[in-house]
Design goal:
Layout (H helix, E strand, L loop, with lengths): L1 H16 L6 H15 L2 H24 L10 E4 L3 H7 L5 E8 L5 E8 L2 H10 L2 H7 L1 E5 L2 E6 L2 E6 L3 E7 L3 H8 L4 H4 L5
Antiparallel strand pairs: 1-2, 2-3, 3-7, 4-5, 5-6, 6-7
Helix pairs in contact: 2-3, 3-4
């Protein structure tokens, strides 16, 4: 029995002392803490910004998974720089985008923006069914309501993800793409 307790204790100590698998978020946070303990507030702030950017990059990757596949015969091109673009203009939050192109050359650009000031500013309009009805034609995709304003379809999921579809494709073609979205999953895309 002494051997079992000793073995269990040794294993527990090995697990506790084993280094966590490093990633950009933990690396930046650990560096921020080290710099803070040294009293270097400038580097602490810089490392915290790095950690925040790394988290947003992870969120952007998770958000991209919710861009639907292209309809039959169409192609889809994911904008790999969409998330970085929002960070560069100081918007914060996560972003994902894709272009869908029909065999005839019509296109739809679908963008997903989450947890940023633009989402907050649109929430008062797109989170209110009466306001949406005044803005344009209401569309429903299951429980998700969206508004069509002269060929631009917009909606808000869980007051945190703004969806916008624009392009030269018809409203029906845009709706076909939007109908393939997992709106329930999108509400908790980064969990």
């Amino acid at each position: 029995m002494k051997t079992s307790v000793a073995t269990a204790t040794a294993l527990a100590l090995a697990l506790v002392s084993a280094p966590l698998q490093a990633d950009p978020v933990t690396d930046a946070l650990e560096s921020a803490l080290e710099n803070y303990e040294k009293g270097d507030l400038g580097m602490t702030a810089a490392r915290l910004t790095e950690a925040q950017k790394a988290v947003v990059a992870l969120q952007g990757g998770k958000l991209t998974r919710f861009l639907p596949e292209a309809p039959d015969g169409w192609s889809r091109e994911i904008d790999e720089d969409a998330n970085e673009g929002m960070s560069m203009v100081g918007m914060g939050g996560a972003s994902a985008a894709a272009d869908y192109i029909s065999p005839e050359g019509d296109h739809v650009t679908l963008t997903l923006d989450a947890d940023n000031p633009m989402v907050t500013s649109m929430a008062s309009m797109l989170g209110n069914p009466q306001m949406m009805a005044m803005m344009g034609e209401l569309l429903e995709f299951g429980d998700q309501r969206m508004v069509n304003q002269d060929g631009e379809i917009s909606g808000l999921v869980a007051n945190r993800v703004l969806i916008q579809a624009t392009g030269t494709a018809s409203d029906e073609q845009m709706s076909e793409i939007l109908s393939m979205m997992d709106f329930d999953g999108l509400a908790t895309y980064d969990k």
